[in-house]
Amino acid sequence: MQDPSVSFIESQPLSETRLSESDIQRWREKGFALVHDLLPRPLLAELKQDAQNHYPVPGSKASKRFIDFSSGQSFVFPSRSTAFNAVTLHPAMLQAAADLLAVPVMGLRLSQSDLWPKYGSPNPKTGLEIDPLKEDDNRDQRMHCDYPNHSLVHPPEWNSPEAVEMIVYLNNYEDCEGATAVVPRSGYEDPAYPWPIVQSPGVGALDYVNDRIKAEAYMASQDPQGAAFRAQHLYPREVVARYQFGSVLLYRHDTWHRGRPVKSDTLRLVQNLTFCKAGREWLTPAHSGWSWSMYEPDKLMEKLIAEATVEQRTVLGFPAPGHDYWTPHTLAAVEARYASFGIDMAPYH
Ligand SMILES: O=C(O)CCC(=O)C(=O)O
Ligand SMILES: [Fe+2]
Prior knowledge:
Blueprint: H1 21-30, E1 32-35, H2 41-54, H3 82-88, H4 91-101, E2 108-119, E3 163-169, H5 173-176, E4 181-182, H6 212-222, H7 224-234, E5 239-240, E6 248-251, E7 257-258, E8 267-277, H8 300-307, H9 310-315, H10 328-338
Antiparallel strand pairs: 1-6, 2-8, 3-6, 3-8, 4-5, 4-7
Helix pairs in contact: 2-3, 6-7
The structure holds 2-oxoglutaric acid and fe (ii) ion.
The site of fe (ii) ion (FE2) has 3 residues, from loops.
């Protein structure tokens, strides 16, 4: 059954695994685009299987502790899931981010890759009672922009975006609902997009509250003007992403959006990624540095680096060919570190 009160995001299938000009325009002007066939389905199926092996089944007692967004750093890059790493650095994903930001792939840096579960409220008939809502409950989120926990500053002017955020859906909307909502921006005069973006819990002196009802009550008590703005300009204009298995929602740090409730007793799995323009140190990685796992006995990260393409390595921050880091000595030293994993240093000579 479809909820007649929601409006869906318009989207067209891709003709190839490259964003169309209209998707790029939509992202740049409205703040988002939804695409359906960017990634190969067998890879996505493998990823979904890995995620289902990792997270408790919906309706189980163990699933009840998952009320917040993110995997709590338990399913982040670099991961033991080969499919997850492959999606993270998939050439089609890198090309999409590069096309949106109008930079070469080598001008991108990865700052987030996290696979997280979202459970529908337990069905009381199955025996698990519903816990009272907490401030940080993510089932029915408050409208927000993502920049506060990604950036030390504020998103730049609208026409100079510096990051692409992506949500890769591993279910079908009809099965799980819980479609992300976004507010399309319509030009400089759009009253939903005033500058600066501060009318939100968690920004400045306002406390972080995730749950929509609690957040709006809090806003009404702390910033009645901000609360009125949100009620008048944000919620009534939201449109939702009717996602399919493998759809990707492309959005920005300055796009108003929110997560909506997942169907009772179902599990929606999504991978969240962020690619930034290189050299933006104020956009901070959401996880520990990629080198931090280099002492793990399975040498996963070392192998990933050795096997990656030059572009993929560069997106992780490895110095690009021609960078002044490279001298005959550093070339030999880096080769010594990765030689046993079969790295080919020829492109750096
Ligand atoms: O889960 C979703 O659909 C969106 C989540 C989100 O926007 C967030 O947690 O910041
Ligand atoms: Fe968000």
